[in-house]
Amino acid sequence: MGFSAMDERTARPFDFTAHVERLAADVSRRVPELGHVDVARVAFSWSQTRKAVPYGIYASLTPLRFRGGALSEQRDGQTWVTQRIVDRDGRDFLYLMTFYLPRFLNCRAGEKLETLVHEMWHIGPAFDGDLRRHAGRCYAHGPSQVAFDAKVSALTRQYLDTSPADELLAFLRHNHRGLCRRFGGVVGRRIPRPRLLPKTG
Question: Which of 40, 66, 130, 182 is the residue whose CA sits 20 to 30 A from 13?
């Protein structure tokens, strides 16, 4: 199936980050193990890939707090803080989720959905701005990347088994060129990756 009637060619470009945010909110509502993700506190962004090649990173999750949700961290005798990202009301976002275009959009639909679930699974269960930390040296993915990927695949299937609305998933079936052709362009929120800053005062 293609786009629903509401998504037919219009004068407005396709808002990628708005569509991804709505899809993430639906995943959080339907998958209990991802129910801790408050999408309103996640900043969704996109970044231009340097080369038009199919391999490379598709998305990334940047935690905006330190271990355990701490606002600062000591390193080599210096206290560091993370540059803030705030919403329209001045409330801090706790995570930045960035998608790399057009590479992400040129994947298969199933890969796109799994990539979104993958990044959501990285969000710590306390939703305090820290990552989900697995046992072992590789705390981000745990001792087995295969096991991590299998978990993500299971969560993705669990979501699809709830029969989500097709209008939320339809854009995943189109590549970057297709979206540009239909909508005249792809736009969305673009947020630079925040920097670590030395704490003063």
Answer: 40
